[in-house]
Amino acid sequence: MGLTFNIKALCTLSGSLKLIQIILAFICIALLREYDLHFGAESWHKSLADRRLVGIIAIGSSILISLPLLLAYIFFAHSSNLLEVLYCFTAAIMNIAGGAMAIETYQDMSRSKSSDAGMAMGSLMIINALAYLIDAGTGTIANRK
Predict the structure, then answer these.
(1) pLDDT tens for residues 91-135?
(2) What SS3 class is residue 133?
(3) At 78, is the secondary structure helix, strand, or coil?
(4) Fold of 9-144
């Protein structure tokens, strides 16, 4: 497998979905850091730390999954396979969990910039999960051929 440069891979469904997933993850990171958001755990107390970690890991895993796969599309003429589908399902589950925790945390708070940002982050994470599910579905279809 040689090193190629195929920028047209960004124009494919999988390539554009990966780009969308990366952009949404970076927006979520920006919201998380700018508004000091949490996932129902304002401190790192032992009983709530897992909740906070799951949310942060969900956002980070989006980048750790999508960026290498996008680079593989561009530089190595990567084709969809079962492992990629499993990565997409894992990322979808993580994003659904993190998004649900963020929405649960911020939906009953009084309206403020922070609560609006928390709701936006949770919504974007669920939208990102949908992008991963679509990506997994297209990968499954590609594997059948």
Answers:
(1) 999 999 999 999 999 998 899 999 999 999 999 999 999 999 999
(2) helix
(3) coil
(4) Four Helix Bundle (Hemerythrin (Met), subunit A) (1.20.120)
Radius of gyration of the chain (CA): 17
pTM of the model as a whole: 0.88
Between 95 and 76, whose confidence is greater?
A: 95
Q: What is the enclosing helix (H) or strand (E) of 145? A: none
The answer to whether the Cα torsion of 42, 46, 50, 51 is positive or negative is: negative
The DSSP string of 5-65 is --GGGGGSHHHHHHHHHHHHHHHHHHHHHHTT--SS-SS--HHHHHHHHHHHHHHHHHHHH
**Burial (Cβ within 10 Å: 0-12, 13-18, ≥19) of residue 47:** exposed
Q: Which residue has the tokens 């850091």?
A: 33
Q: Nearest-CA neighbor of 96 among 49, 145, 144, 136? A: 136
Coil, strand or helix: which one is 93? Answer: helix
**Identity of residue 108:** D
The pLDDT of residue 60 is: 94
Place of tokens 């939906």: 107
**Domain boundaries defined on the chain:** 9-144
